[in-house]
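To: structure subgroup
Subject: Chain for Friday's discussion

All,

I'm putting the inputs and outputs inline so they're searchable in the archive.
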Amino acid sequence: MHFARSTDSGASFGEAVEIDASGSYGYVDVELLGNGDAIVSWLRSGAENLALVTRRVTPAGELTVVETAVDIDISRPLDFPQMVPTGERLVFVWTDYSSGSDVKTGVGRFGP
């Protein structure tokens, strides 16, 4: 999975950086922070469950390590996980359809 940034409303894009080389399940979300950094979240498949993971990308294309924000104990959510930054936290919400339609939430940190 790759990430490329546009500074002209999508008319052109900078060089793409690799966000995840393997294990990406999809369901990608991106939030731009006030300082220009982007937080990218996606689902990564594990042996028995899914993990909602994040990575920060600076305007210069520098990457932080991939961090697990939330472990999800289902084989797949049938809803697109939503991410909202608040302070130094990331709030996630998704629907778990494995036993009905339960709305689940999780909180991760991304720091300054």
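Points worth raising on Friday:
The chain has a mean pLDDT of 87.
The longest strand covers residues 24-32.

D.
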